[in-house]
Design a protein that fits this description.
Chain lengths: 213, 59
């Protein structure tokens, strides 16, 4: 099972902790959602997610390895037949822990740990298509800065608005190029570097925006 | 074994205990039901966190 945790074992001994985590994992797979203390939920999460990874692999060896922890065969069957395949599109993060306040008797902080049932959101797309356009528009440091400012602004607005603004900055940048070239006269290498950094910020802004959605 | 030589005076005891203070918990309004709740915690009134139903509230 997972590497030994640092610090104290829960429940007093390593064996007690191992049994407790196994029982919690069994209950989680059986019911899909359990309420326990925050400390136990936090210890349970890596154990349970590793078992789900075994279930996604789905072969006999994986099943036998899971059976060394979850000894209930019906639970292992549901884990391999239903829970594992349902996470085919999700790479990790199969469980969710939500704090739910204090227990009445001993004021222990409690939490709900549950299997995440939502479909995984599509991964953010890398915007390589726009890279060529950006490089064409930006030739000077001033233009790159303007584009950065525009990009951060545009992150707040919708994707279409961003695209239109980006094209607007390109035209602006080209207007500035004629002014700045006389003073600075940047080499092609420097221009390429600047456009690269601008692209990096652009990509970040894009991913942030995707997260916000 | 080392033991105290003198009885602790009432004054000293009370001076020490005068520093035991409680702090009010910081509370925020639940986005769902506007009731005050602990931050980063499911609302005990409506049972939601991030507008997702987590627990059934105890009525």
């Amino acid at each position: 099972m997972p590497t030994p945790t640092k610090g104290r074992r829960m429940g007093g001994s390593a064996a007690h902790q191992q049994h407790m985590l196994a029982n919690l994992a069994t209950a989680l797979f059986e019911h899909g959602k359990i309420t326990t203390t925050q400390a136990r939920a936090r210890r349970l999460r890596p154990v349970a997610e590793r078992l789900i990874t075994f279930a996604k692999r789905g072969d006999l060896h994986a099943r036998r390895q899971v059976l060394t922890v979850v000894t209930d065969k019906t639970v292992v069957k549901t884990l391999f037949d239903e829970i594992g395949p349902s996470y085919a599109s999700r790479d990790g993060g199969y469980t969710r822990i939500t704090k739910v306040g204090m227990r009445k008797g001993d004021s222990a902080p409690m939490a709900v740990i549950e299997l995440v049932r939502e479909e995984a959101a599509a991964r953010p797309q890398r915007r390589r298509a726009r890279r060529g356009q950006q490089a064409a528009g930006q030739r000077s440091g001033a233009a790159a800065q303007a584009a950065e400012a525009e990009a951060t602004e545009a992150a707040a607005t919708a994707a279409e608005a961003e695209a239109t603004e980006a094209t607007a900055t390109e035209t602006e940048a080209e207007a500035q190029v004629t002014e700045v070239v006389a003073e600075v006269g940047p080499t092609s290498e420097a221009a390429a570097e600047q456009s690269d950094t601008a692209d990096a910020t652009e990509a970040e802004a894009g991913s942030d925006e995707a997260d916000a959605k | 074994m080392a033991v105290p030589k003198r009885k602790m005076s009432r004054s000293n005891t009370r001076s020490r205990r005068a520093q035991w203070k409680t702090a009010a918990p910081s509370l925020i309004a639940c986005p769902q039901c506007r009731e005050l709740k602990l931050p980063h915690t499911a609302c005990p009134t409506c049972g939601t966190y991030n507008r997702r139903q987590v627990v059934t509230p105890s009525a």
